[in-house]
Amino acid sequence: MLLGVVLLALLVTAGVNNMWRFQPWADGETHGRWTALYNGYGRTVGTDQQVVLEPKAATSADVTHGSLVHTSETYQDADFQITVKTEEQVREGSPNVWEVGWVLWNFRDNDHFYAVALKPNGWEISKQDPKYPGSQRFLATGDDMTFPIGEEYRVEVKQDWPQMTVSVNGHVLAKVVDRERPYRGGSIGLYTEDARVRFMDLSVAAAPGD
């Protein structure tokens, strides 16, 4: 009898996990550790340890579709790692190099966060800041490392406030300090525009924020 109950519980758990993995997340929904902000008219699916973002494919140069989820918890000075794999750029025609997976941190809202983007021709670390044209300020960029589509990259962010260190596969991209209206604390976000991206195995070494 006990064995039957255990097996039934395992089957129910497996069914819920599979439904969670393949049932698209609607905008505003929370699923485990993740909250789906928007899906770019496409599809967001996942589990606690794996999220796939695939916004609708853009069909013209003046159209962009983005997708974003963030952790339902906030963190203060989080050190974290996550694996990013841009599986395919879905824009019809010629994709832009920044249409890849982005990792966000100290995320407050759609206009306030830090980000790293791993591009086929290099990388960029930026701050989403409405005070700047286009609401974006570049903190560091480089082409010493390139990131071809279809490969996995382990991104690590360490915060020894006010310094933030961003590494990929154990190689430091940059150490940056933001002295203009810095954002300290917030959630961790996953973002893409016009690409299908798989994010895996988020590991956070920080206590939840207030």
From TrEMBL:
GO molecular-function annotation terms?
hydrolase activity
| 3-keto-alpha-glucoside-1,2-lyase/3-keto-2-hydroxy-glucal hydratase domain location | 22-204
Q: Which UniProt keywords apply?
A: Hydrolase
Question: Which Gene3D superfamilies would you find in this protein's record?
Answer: Exo-inulinase, domain 1 (2.60.120.560)
Q: Which Pfam families match?
A: 3keto-disac_hyd (PF06439)
InterPro entries linked: AL/BT2_dom
Please report the name of this protein according to its UniProt entry.
Family 16 glycoside hydrolase
